[in-house]
C-alpha cells in the first residue's frame, strides 16, 4: 500500500506540473478543457500502468488515498484559516489545478464551497484504474484455468 501511495503521489505531482505548463501556454477554453481531459486520462493510464492492484476495492482505494487525503487537509486548512485576499485558497487550487481551470471554463466561482470536492478526483481516477486492472487480471486468470 505504501508503494501505491507514493507512486500515486508522484503521478499526481507529474500531472500537476504538466497540466500547469500546458495551461500557462494558452487561455482558449476549448484548449483548457482538452488539457483537463488529458490530465484525467493520464491519471487513469498511469495508474493502470504503474500501480499494483490489491485484494479488494477498499484496499485499492486506501492504497491510492494519500493524494486525496493531502488535498483534503490542504483544503480544510485553507478554508478554515483564510489568508489575505484568499491567498490560502490559491494553494489548494494549485494542488488541484484542474479545479481552477474548470471554474474558469464553466464560469463558476473557484471559492471553497464550489471547488473543495475536487480533492477526490485524483484518488477516484487512480482507484478506477486499479479496479479495471483487477478485473482484467481476474478475467485472465479465469481463462487460463479453463485452458488447463
How does this structure look, described?
The structure is a single chain. Helix content is 79%, strand content 0%. The protein has 148 residues and is mainly alpha-helical. Helix 2 crosses helix 8, helix 4 packs antiparallel against helix 5 and helix 5 packs across helix 6. The chain is globular and about 50 Å long.
Short description:
The protein is an all-alpha fold. It contains 8 helices and no strands.
Structural Rg = 17 Å
Please write the string of helix (H) and strand (E) elements: HHHHHHHH
Low-confidence stretches: 143-148
Helical content stands at over 70%
Approximately what portion of the residues adopt beta-strand conformation?
A: under 5%
Mean pLDDT, all residues: 88
Largest sheet: none
Q: How many E strands?
A: 0
Instruction: Give the CA-CA distance, first to last residue.
Output: 32 Å
Structural class computed from helices and strand pairing: mainly alpha
Tell the overall outline: globular
Number of alpha- plus pi-helical segments: 8
Give the SSE layout.
Blueprint: H1 2-25, H2 29-50, H3 57-63, H4 66-80, H5 87-95, H6 97-105, H7 112-115, H8 121-147
Helix pairs in contact: 1-2, 2-6, 2-8, 3-8, 4-5, 5-6
Features:
148 residues; mainly alpha; 8 helices; disordered C terminus
Amino acid at each position: 500500500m505504501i508503494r501505491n501511495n507514493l507512486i500515486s503521489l508522484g503521478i499526481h505531482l507529474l500531472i500537476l506540473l504538466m497540466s500547469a505548463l500546458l495551461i500557462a501556454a494558452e487561455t482558449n477554453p476549448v484548449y483548457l478543457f482538452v488539457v483537463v481531459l488529458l490530465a484525467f486520462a493520464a491519471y487513469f493510464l498511469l495508474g493502470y500502468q504503474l500501480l499494483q492492484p490489491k485484494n479488494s476495492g477498499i484496499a485499492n482505494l486506501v492504497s491510492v488515498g494519500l493524494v486525496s487525503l493531502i488535498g483534503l487537509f490542504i483544503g480544510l486548512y485553507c478554508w478554515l484559516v483564510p489568508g489575505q485576499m484568499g491567498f490560502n485558497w490559491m494553494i489548494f487550487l494549485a494542488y488541484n489545478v484542474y479545479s481552477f481551470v474548470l471554474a474558469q471554463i464553466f464560469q463558476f466561482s473557484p471559492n471553497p464551497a464550489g471547488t473543495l470536492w475536487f480533492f477526490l478526483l485524483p484518488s477516484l481516477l487512480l482507484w478506477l484504474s486499479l479496479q479495471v486492472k483487477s478485473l482484467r487480471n481476474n478475467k485472465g486468470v479465469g481463462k487460463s484455468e479453463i485452458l488447463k
